[in-house]
Specification:
By secondary structure, the chain is an alpha+beta fold. Helices cover about 30% and strands about 10% of the residues.
Amino acid sequence: CYDISHPRRLGRLFRHLKKCAVPLQYSVFLFSGDTRQLDRCLAKAGRLINPVEDDLRAYPLPARGFKARLGKTALPEGIQWSGLPAAW
């Protein structure tokens, strides 16, 4: 997730993160991959932001944690994220 203060940096970071992860909300992405892939994604993202003005965070999610969604889906109709049970 991120909070970017400048529109140009925001656009660049958004486009980069769309290549690495699935956008769930305006500034929240779901990354699925190994540590090496995450490090590469965050290293590139770190070069796109201003560390004094911007905020970029990555939080680990538990592998077997509770997963639920309320409201509008982030993915197109008929597409399910493979980490979620089919009932969702």
